[in-house]
Every structure is written in structure tokens, then in C-alpha cells.
């Protein structure tokens, strides 16, 4: 059977191969990218789903508008307003089947084969593959602990004239990096100066451990004249409430939103109204603030636990900046003390010791740094994290 | 903003424009393509969703496998086996976000820009648009009340060497036509002879009014050696249980299924596990046979009511074959007695009389028949159907 030529641009991920080894009994996994099921507010979601079916069974079970279930759009607009997005109205967003679909719709709507797209190096693996399926030629802008390096980004924009720039500014996956306020402003200025769309993927912004992070690019756009129309913002309920609902959203200027809606109509018609009505009832119930407090506190404990254990067990053989939120440590093998610098090799030895993580190389669209790795602290408690990091130390 | 060139291939549907007029108070609509909300088994779905959350909250709320929630794949395989599909195993299908997504994944996996695809004329509008977004050059094979005309289909296959053939063999949308058993066998033989993929879209096959229809192409493939690998089958819970769950499935040979799964990974990661776990519990509960009996009986009454009313009120000005299942009448204005033959004009006059339907022209990928129209009997009861058809008579 002859498949579409677009499939030639993607390959089965190296990470998936690694995941097959995770079935080994007793393994401690820092490899996942998912939240801890034990933190899901099952009772709150049970009540919300019951209310959805009791109050408006037709709305929850019938076909719905491609743009999304109106009560949910209203709740999500209010949620964004509560995070500082000025004048956010329900018709400025559409509900998507997870934020993965928002990325897919942006790809479908914007990318012609051969178009340039700039992403962070490293960035979310599924985004790279998603955009490549639409024929994107992906360029990579370097990052540091303050997020993407804006001078390099500007050079790349001038050089490549990309269709858009894709960023995870807040607690990035895999970088854990937090884009500084000053860099956020400069990126909005670049968007206006070069008339280039900036796609802000923000699934982790609510998962901060201390102070709240700087405002999202979307929120900050009101301070940089002309920038709002150049920002597309992808939100998600997956990391804070439940990935299984598959409820995300896309905020964009009207013309782009209309095109994305048309593409969505032919992608899945609409997101599950049952899931949407459940999410709407949940947000309406007022339980979200307590849920957010709970996940922030638990993930903060785990993150601190991992930072301490890494320093104690691996010492100067590993370099990292402790994240201020999100789910991930991004680290680099320094090679000091004659220790290994190849994270793929290290991952194999770690599995033998009963602990798993993901090497960093696949997260780079170009020029992978083979010494990097991603560690998730999301799904193990602090004791398990200490035990797992101890095994990492033995593997190194 | 400059969008992707693929958007040049599609346009906002004429039907959508018509739908804007449906808000008029007191209008009776035969225009929709959706089932009647009043038939949804809300209590059964409530229990199923509760069980899903009680028995396996992690499975229902966490990220899940792209291929689908295993208990649902097992239930769907059993459902297909109960309809005569030999040796159907769970790993031969993936769960999709409605069958619309199955079509989207087939488009993404199979169609390179410029590839030929053959569909029925008329066929499901969203399929035409979905495939065109991937750059398909769509050819149209004529139908009659026995479904697609196989001799013409074979000529078109020889002439165009299509990437695949897309059919709705059982109670097609908009045609209501039922492909005969003999034609089904011949199509399977054509698939083998020309090594061409045949995509069978089957959302209506369970909605029969009298005898069960002939087996699906998928089921019949076991009788035509070598044909099973050339059949992709799209199933759906939308018309029989609830569209709002967005639970469909795709059956295909292993290589195609693996490619479609990869594409799905970057489209929406997976279908809502909450919706999937609810559907799995529903199928497990044993309520489905009674639900099917109920919808078959009610839609049969409505279909008979519409047939009688059309004969009485419109007489020889309209031609149609009474459907044996599904949700639609496909009709043609004969022009006899000096009556109009332009269904678009007629639709506008009907709206003035307080009744709506969809003109047939947009359902043709090529050479539209302007005298055709689609009438859905799904959402009005028999009294409303009689009243609505009376208004049609006055409009004509």
C-alpha cells in the first residue's frame, strides 16, 4: 500500500522505543510526561458529569458546535481573564480535543509544505512531528534557563521569515525553563515588528511552586500595541484537572480562529460534548482554585525533593536549574570526574538499575545535545524520587 | 495573515449558510443530519459514566493509549463480531474521535496532493471537504437505489487509478441507498483485482427498519479471498447511542492502522478516555440491544410517515425510493405538472412556509444534480412530519 508522502517526514520516536522497556517490574519512572492520577479530583469530576447529564442531557450527548460548548467557552474565557487576559470574550477561543489538537489545527491552517517554523531547541517532541506532517521545515532557537534567547530568535526570524514561531514560555517541556518578563515583552515586539505569528503553548503555566510566573504572552499583549493579533495561545485542562477529558482551547485573532474552526469541522466535528459539559460544570462548581493549590503544593514538594537528591547523589556530574513550576527537570551530563556524557547510554544503564528517564536528544529539531536528559518528578512521591535518584547515582 | 495553500481547496459550505435561517421560530426542520436527542439512553449513560469513574478512575481520567482504551477496543471487536465480522480482534481497530476523525486520519495517511479519490455522487459533504484539505482530486461515481453503480465504478478505477474508493454502502448520507449484496461482492472483487483500498463508512448500518441489511463489506470480506486487506471500515456510536461521546473506530490492515495511529498521536493524542470508558461500560452493561430496537422502531415509524405524507402532499412532483434504514430520504423534483425543478429555489420557498431541508447539490463532488434534495425524518415525530410535509406541498 502506498501512503501519503507527508509520512516520509516523520519517524517512530526513539522515546516510544524506550517506553517499551518501562514494563519491567519495580522500575521507578521519571520518564513520563503526564500528571499524577492520584491527584485527580475524581469526586469533583463525578459530580460535574452528573450535573451535566441531569441539567442538560441534550447538550452533553448531542452533536455540538465545532467552536465548542457555549457554557464551557464562557468558563474558559473567565479563567483566562482571571489570569490577566484583558477583554477576553468566549468567541475569541475555540475548544479543542486537548491542546495537541490546537497544535494540529495551527499546522493544518498555517503550514504549506516547505514553510519555515521556528521552535525552541529543545521543545515538545509531538509538536515537531505534528508540524513536520504538514511539511514544515523546522528551525531551532537556543534556550537557557530564562527561556528562548531572543537575540538568536530575531536573527532566525530575519533569516528564515517563518510562518510562525512556536514557544512554551512557561515551565517548558522538556526544558522546565521560565521565559523572563523582559524577554516576553521583546518577543511581543518582535511579533509586531516582523508581523510574525507567535504560538504560545501553555499547559504548565498554572503549575507554579512559589510566586506566580510572569503573565502569559496573551495576557501581556495588551501592553504591547498591535501584538494581540499576532498571538495564538493554546490552553489545556490536562495537567491541572484531567488529561482524559481531552479539553484544550485555542485563542487567536478572528480570521485564524475561523480557519482553524473550519479545519476542526473536518477533523473531528467537535470535541466530546460530554467531556466539555463536564469540564464546564467543574469550572462552575468553584473547586478549581483548591485543586490548583493542591497540585502546586504536591509538585513543589516533589521538585524540591528531586533537586536535593540530584545534588546529593550525582553532584557535579550533572548540571541543572531547579524549575519554578511544571513537571520537569532538564539536566546535562557535565562529564566531570570522568563520568559519562552520553545520555542515551546513561538511560540504558539506568534501566538496568531500575530507574527510567528520557534522553534529551529527540527533543531537538536540529543539532541535538546528546548530553541532555529530562526527568519528570510528577508521578513518584518524594521517597520514591530519592530512591530513584539513588539508582541514577549508581548507574552513573 | 497568509494561510496554508491547502485551504484554497475548500469553501464554507452552502448548507451552513442555510442553517443560519433555521433559528426562525416554529420552523419544522428536515435539514439536520443528527439523531433525536429524545432517544438517547441518558440513564444508561449516567450509570455507565459512574461505573467508569468508580471502577477505574485512573483509566477514565489519565492519558491513554493512542490506539484506544483496551476494554472499549474489546467491546467494539465483539460488537463487530456480532455483526458477522469473522476473527475480529481488538488490535485490528483503533478508537477515533467520532468517525469523522477516522476519515481525517485516512486522508492524512493516504492522500498526497493531487491523488485521485473516488466517492459516490452524492456523498457525505464533510468527507469531500476533509479529503480536499489533503489535496485530493475527487471523482464521483453515480448511484441508484441499489447504491453505487459498479460498472461505472470499475471504469473510473481503471481511468483514474485512485488512492482509494470511499463508500457509504448502507443507508448512505444523503442517498439513503442500500448497496445490494451482489454489488458488495463485486466491489470486494474490484478491490482485489485492482489492489485498491475501499473505505467503508458505516454509521447507519444498525438503523434498519425491517430485515437486517446485507453484511458490511468488512464482514463480507471473509468470503472474497484477499479482500480483507483492502477494506478500511469506519464505525460510530453517534447515530445509535450518542454523538456527544465522539466515539468512532477504524478497522484496517496492520500497516495502515499503524500509520493512522501515528497520525492520530499528533492529531489529538487519544480520544477522551472518559468518553471511551463510558462507552465501554455501556456496551458491557448489555443495554445496547434494547437501545437499538428502540431507535430502529421509532425511526421506522417516522420514515413510513414521511413516505406516506410525501406521496399524498407532493404526488408526482417528487420522486424517491423509501429508505430501508438510516435517517434520510433522498428525493428528486420531477418537474411534472409544471412544478419547479430547482431544489435550492424550493428550499428558500419552503423556509418561508416554515419548513427546512437541504438541497442536494452540495453533496456532489462533481456535476451536481440541482433537482435533488435531502429530507431527514430523524428529529420530528410523525405528526410534525405530516405538518412539515404539508408545508412542503404548499411551498411547491
UniProtKB/TrEMBL annotation, chains A, B:
InterPro entries noted in UniProt: Aminotransferase_I/II_large (IPR004839), Class-I_PLP-dep_aminotransf (IPR050859), PyrdxlP-dep_Trfase (IPR015424), PyrdxlP-dep_Trfase_major (IPR015421), PyrdxlP-dep_Trfase_small (IPR015422)
Family: Belongs to the class-I pyridoxal-phosphate-dependent aminotransferase family.
Gene Ontology MF terms: pyridoxal phosphate binding; transaminase activity
GO biological process, one term: alpha-amino acid metabolic process
Subunit: Homodimer.
CC cofactor: pyridoxal 5'-phosphate
Highest taxon in the source lineage: Bacteria
Protein name in the entry: PLP-dependent aminotransferase family protein
Residues covered by the Aminotransferase class I/classII large domain: 41-392
CDD domains assigned: AAT_like
One Pfam family named in its UniProt record: Aminotran_1_2
Transmembrane segments: none
PANTHER family to which the protein is assigned, alphabetical: AMINOTRANSFERASE, KYNURENINE_ALPHA-AMINOADIPATE AMINOTRANSFERASE, MITOCHONDRIAL
Keywords associated with the record: Aminotransferase, Pyridoxal phosphate, Transferase
Amino acid at each position: 500500500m502506498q501512503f501519503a508522502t507527508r509520512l516520509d517526514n516523520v519517524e517512530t520516536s526513539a522515546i516510544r522505543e524506550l517506553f517499551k522497556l518501562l514494563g519491567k517490574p519495580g522500575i521507578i519512572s521519571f520518564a513520563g510526561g503526564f500528571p499524577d492520577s492520584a491527584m485527580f479530583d475524581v469526586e469533583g469530576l463525578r459530580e460535574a458529569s452528573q450535573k451535566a447529564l441531569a441539567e442538560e442531557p441534550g447538550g452533553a450527548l448531542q452533536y455540538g458546535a465545532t467552536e465548542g460548548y457555549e457554557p464551557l467557552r464562557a468558563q474558559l474565557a473567565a479563567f483566562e481573564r482571571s489570569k490577566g487576559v484583558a477583554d477576553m470574550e468566549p468567541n475569541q477561543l475555540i475548544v479543542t480535543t486537548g491542546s495537541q489538537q490546537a497544535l494540529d489545527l495551527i499546522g493544518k491552517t498555517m503550514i504549506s509544505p516547505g514553510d519555515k517554523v521556528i521552535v525552541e531547541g529543545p521543545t515538545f517532541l509531538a509538536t515537531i512531528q505534528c508540524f513536520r506532517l504538514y511539511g514544515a521545515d523546522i528551525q531551532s532557537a537556543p534556550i537557557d534557563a530564562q527561556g528562548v534567547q531572543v537575540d538568536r530568535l530575531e536573527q532566525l526570524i530575519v533569516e528564515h521569515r517563518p510562518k510562525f514561531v512556536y514557544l512554551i514560555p512557561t515551565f517548558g517541556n522538556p526544558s522546565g525553563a521560565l521565559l523572563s518578563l523582559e524577554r516576553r515583552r521583546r518577543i511581543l515586539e518582535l511579533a509586531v515588528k516582523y508581523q510574525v505569528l507567535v504560538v504560545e503553548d501553555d499547559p504548565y503555566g498554572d503549575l507554579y511552586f512559589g510566586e506566580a510566573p510572569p503573565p502569559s504572552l496573551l495576557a501581556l499583549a495588551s501592553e504591547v500595541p498591535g501584538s494581540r493579533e499576532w498571538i495564538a495561545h493554546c490552553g489545556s485542562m490536562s495537567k491541572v484537572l484531567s488529561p482524559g477529558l481531552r479539553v484544550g482551547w485555542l485563542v487567536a485573532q478572528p480570521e485564524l480562529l475561523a480557519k482553524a474552526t473550519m479545519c476542526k469541522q473536518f477533523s473531528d466535528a467537535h470535541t466530546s460534548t460530554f467531556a466539555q459539559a463536564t469540564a464546564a460544570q467543574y469550572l462552575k462548581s468553584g473547586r478549581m482554585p483548591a485543586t490548583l493549590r493542591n497540585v502546586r503544593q504536591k509538585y513543589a514538594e516533589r521538585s524540591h525533593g528531586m533537586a536535593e537528591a540530584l545534588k546529593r547523589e550525582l553532584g557535579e556530574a550533572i548540571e541543572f536549574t531547579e524549575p519554578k513550576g511544571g513537571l520537569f527537570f532538564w539536566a546535562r551530563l557535565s562529564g566531570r570526574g570522568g563520568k559519562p556524557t552520553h545520555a542515551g547510554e546513561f538511560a540504558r544503564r539506568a534501566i538496568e538499575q531500575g530507574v527510567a528517564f528520557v534522553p534529551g536528544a529527540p527533543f531537538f529539531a536540529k543539532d541535538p545535545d546528546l548530553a541532555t536528559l529530562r526527568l519528570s518528578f510528577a508521578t513518584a512521591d518524594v521517597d520514591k524520587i530519592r530512591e530513584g535518584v539513588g539508582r541514577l547515582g549508581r548507574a552513573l
